[in-house]
Specification:
This protein is α+β, with helices and mostly antiparallel strands. The chain has 2 domains: 2-134, no CATH class; 143-275, Jelly Rolls, CATH 2.60.120.40. The chain is built from 7 helices and 14 strands. Strand 9 (206-214) and strand 10 form a beta hairpin. The N and C termini lie far apart (84 Å). It comes from Esox lucius (Northern pike). This is C1q domain-containing protein. Pfam families: C1q.
Length: 276
């Protein structure tokens, strides 16, 4: 009966370290808390750290493998004397050797996967950080922009009715969505657009001004009046959403006038910022 009780005690002593040397080693080993390490690693979500995480995990496995080997040595030999007196050590050593074998195999798998996936991970990082440059929505986005001026020297107006202003001098018309004959811009796609306009006139008891229209709706207006006896300027701009087929144009109000010359003082510009 005594042997029955002694065997479990011997097993416990072997695993926990019955001698002062084994206990001393356990205190000095400072084996890391792998669960704590894994929780910390789990919280890291930056794709750029994937390779570093694999290396850290591989290092932890290697350190654990070394600790198990040292523990096996301690269990097999106490104070320099082979520990053959405890037959229970056979089970413990066998179990630890199995664990060591599994850790070694796991580390080999990680190293293999690291080599195989290094290029893939780098490609994934490139795709994440440079996605806008290669995205079909970016490369296939229609290029829409225009910049114009009146193109004639002299006064434009006043008229007894509101009149659409036709800007006939074209600096650029990417996509050809501004109509040089009607002065109307037609949106080719649904998106957010930016429009600006400038105007100038020599004010002498006159009124200058322009209104930007979206379809039949007045969006913004700028102008000035007075007897300044000198050249005056005004400008405005807006960013608005447009549906495909919406039209934008400039209108000269009734009894207003503007003036242009070779300096292109009156301009109308627009561009697509991005599609919606």
């Amino acid at each position: 009966m005594r042997g029955v009780h002694v065997l479990p005690v011997l097993l416990l002593l072997c695993q926990l370290g019955t001698s002062e040397d084994v206990s001393s080693y356990a205190q000095k080993s400072n084996q890391p808390d792998m669960w704590s390490e894994l929780k910390d690693l789990r919280d890291i979500v930056n794709m750029g750290t994937v390779i570093t995480l694999v290396k850290l995990f591989s290092s932890l496995l290697s350190e654990s493998r070394d600790n198990i080997r040292t523990l096996l040595d301690c269990c097999n030999c106490v104070n320099g004397v082979p520990n053959d007196f405890f037959p229970a050590n056979i089970c413990v050593i066998s179990g630890n050797k199995d664990l060591l074998s599994k850790l070694t195999s796991a580390q080999s798998d990680i190293e293999r996967l690291q080599k195989e996936n290094t290029g893939k991970i780098e490609l994934m990082i490139v795709n994440v950080f440079y996605q806008p440059c290669y995205s079909p929505s970016f490369t296939e986005r229609p290029k829409v922009a225009f910049s114009t001026s009146l193109g004639t020297t002299g006064s434009h107006g006043p008229f007894n009715t509101a009149t659409t202003v036709v800007y006939r001098h074209v600096f650029s018309n990417t996509g050809s969505h501004y109509n040089i004959n009607t002065g109307v811009f037609t949106a080719p796609v649904k998106g957010l657009y930016h429009f600006t306009f400038t105007m100038g006139d020599f004010l002498k008891s006159t009124v200058m001004g322009l209104t930007l229209f979206k379809n039949g709706e007045a969006i913004i207006h700028s102008g000035e009046s007075g007897d300044h006896q000198r050249f005056r300027y005004a400008s405005n701009g807006v960013i608005i959403p447009l549906e495909k087929g919406d039209v934008v144009f400039m209108q000269l109000p009734e009894n207003y006038r503007i003036y242009d010359d070779s300096h292109h003082r009156n301009t109308f510009n627009g561009m697509l910022l991005y599609t919606l």
